[in-house]
Amino acid sequence: MGPASQQHLVATRRMSTIALIALSCSGLLFAMGVGGGVQCWRARDIGAREFDGFRQVRIKTIQAQLDQVEGPYIVIMGDSHAERLYLPSLCGLPVVNAGMSGATVSDVLDLSRAITPRHKADALLLSVGTNDIWAKRLPETDHAEDAFQKGLAALKSRLRMWSDRRALVAIPPVASGEISQFPRSAAERYSGMLARSCEPESCVYLDLFAGAQRPAGARSAFSDGVHLRNYAGFVRSRERELCVGLGLKPGIATLSQRRGTSSLSAEF
Predict the structure, then answer these.
(1) Closest Cα partner for 104 from 63, 75, 133?
(2) Model pTM score
């Protein structure tokens, strides 16, 4: 048998093996049902790689932006609501967007450990919770609520190394067609946990997107049922309240501007 024939035989055997594995996986899924807990290794592996790949790229992008920051700034951190928020400036300061789509409170905690700011931000805006209340994660169980509170406590401790001032945002509403996937009752309870974790002396809690719940605006407010079309508009409408709560004023030099930016001495 010549070299070409041998290569063809090897390729044929490999294809047969792949086909057999795929057929076995499909058979297991059919026998046990999609909800039976059996997942095809190929689909799971590809899904994990794709999300991990996105996360690594996003981490590098955020770090690159943080490395370029000179002087005072505000950082926005959290899930896709944070990532989709377009705000070149807030309270008269430039903004670095460190949001990451799909992030739970645990993922945001991991993110805060994976990236290193050159110096502390003048303030940090956090939007988290939507992915934690996803129905598939059984958010209305004691286990899920306890996990969220523990993750939130760990994140709160970590974010002190990022900024001395924080603003926590209530979980935004979703369109009526998505409520079964993101229960409003869970959103309210988890938002309550966010509010209770906010200490008055260095934190402000706001329901920035409450206006999106109005029936008159329900059809036009959402781009896909879960995400809003104009996050910046909601933030701008409450900017004065937000900035005052953070001890900042639009267009006015902040304390760190007058004294020089504070260095981040804590080790990451």
Answers:
(1) 133
(2) 0.74
Distance CA 151, CA 34 (A): 30
Using the predicted structure, report yes or no on whether residue 258 has a pLDDT greater than 70.
no
Where do the domains of the chain lie?
64-249
Angle (nearest 5°) at CA 252 between 263 and 76? 55
Query: Under a CB-based contact definition with an 8 Å cutoff, are residues 127 and 78 in contact?
Result: yes
Is the pLDDT at 48 greater than 80? The verdict is no
* Tens digits of residue pLDDT in 64-80: 999 999 999 999 999 99
What residues pair up with 123 in beta bridges, in sequence order?
A: 74
Residue 58's SS3 state is helix
CA distances from 223 to 133, 153, 208, 227, 245 (A): 20, 32, 17, 6, 30
* Inter-residue contact 165 to 124 (CB < 8 Å): yes
* pLDDT tens string 156-191: 999 999 999 999 999 999 999 999 999 999 999 999
Give Cα separations from 245 to 13, 91, 160, 196 (angstroms). Answer: 67, 11, 17, 16
**Per-residue model confidence (pLDDT) at position 220:** 75
pLDDT, greater one: 261 or 203: 203
Point out which residues pair with 77 in neighbouring strands: 98, 126
Contact assessment for residue 247 and residue 91, using Cβ atoms and an 8 Å cutoff? no
CATH of domain 64-249: 3.40.50.1110
Q: How does the average pLDDT of the chain come out, rounded?
A: 80
Instruction: State how beta strands 89-90 and 93-99 pair.
Output: antiparallel
Model confidence at 149: pLDDT above 60: yes
d(CA 76, CA 167) in angstroms, rounded, equals 9
Neighbour order of strands in the sheet with 203-206 = 89-90, 93-99, 74-78, 123-127, 166-169, 203-206
Q: Which residues pair with 204 in a beta bridge?
A: 167
